[in-house]
Amino acid sequence: MASSGASFQLGEAQATGFVLIKRGRTEQVQDSEVVRVEPTVFVDLADTALLHGGGEAVLIDVTVACPVGSNGQQSYVNVSQGQASGNGFYMPVRDGQKHTLTVRAQTSPALFQPGNAQGLTFAFVEEGSDGFLGRGRQSDPDRRGLITDGRRGRMGARQPRTMR
């Protein structure tokens, strides 16, 4: 919902809904309630990860944007493939802009292999004394992501970016 001029502030706000129906005669109804205004945390997980360290880890891109003034908290990515499952960690940048970070997800004891996998990420931020999160997974929930060794697949010979 757009503001009528001023910026929304986090916390409580008064929301009012109004419906007017005109069919022969005019009827109207309205309701009002106090609602909580929360920041938007954008997070998106790439559909493809790059096999790293002989399968001991994968490198996967996470794009995240957090509101200016919020405090980014340690956030994580999980990639799973059969018996192999690994987590990687990152800190969201808090400038309101989208940033793509390459995160290393380490597995143990099984190794990652080229092929299908599932990925999930949560980005955590604090605003004042309240915590908020953004959740991301591969763009198409009906399709599993792909782990590639860099010689084939959509990532091709791409050089991984270092995590900031």
Notes on the protein architecture:
This protein has 164 residues and is mostly beta strands. It has a domain at 42-148: Immunoglobulin-like, CATH 2.60.40. The protein has no helices and eleven strands. The strands form two sheets. A seven-stranded mixed beta barrel has the order 3-4-8-7-6-9-11. Strands 1-2 form a two-stranded antiparallel ribbon. A hairpin with a 2-residue loop joins strand 9 (115-127) and strand 10.
Task: Write a brief structural summary.
This protein is an all-beta fold. It has strands spanning 11-23, 25-37, 42-52, 57-65, 71-72, 75-81, 84-90, 99-107, 115-127, 130-137, 145-148. Residues 139-143 and 152-164 have low confidence and may be disordered.
Helix content bin = under 10%
The major sheet is characterized as: 7 strands, mixed, barrel
Strand content: over 45%
Number of strands: 11
Low-confidence runs of at least 5 consecutive residues: 139-143, 152-164
CATH fold descriptor of the domain at 42-148? Immunoglobulin-like
Structural class: mainly beta
Overall mean confidence score, pLDDT = 81
CATH architecture of the domain at 42-148: Sandwich
CATH class of the domain at 42-148: Mainly Beta
Global Rg: 21 Å
**Cα end-to-end separation:** 33 Å
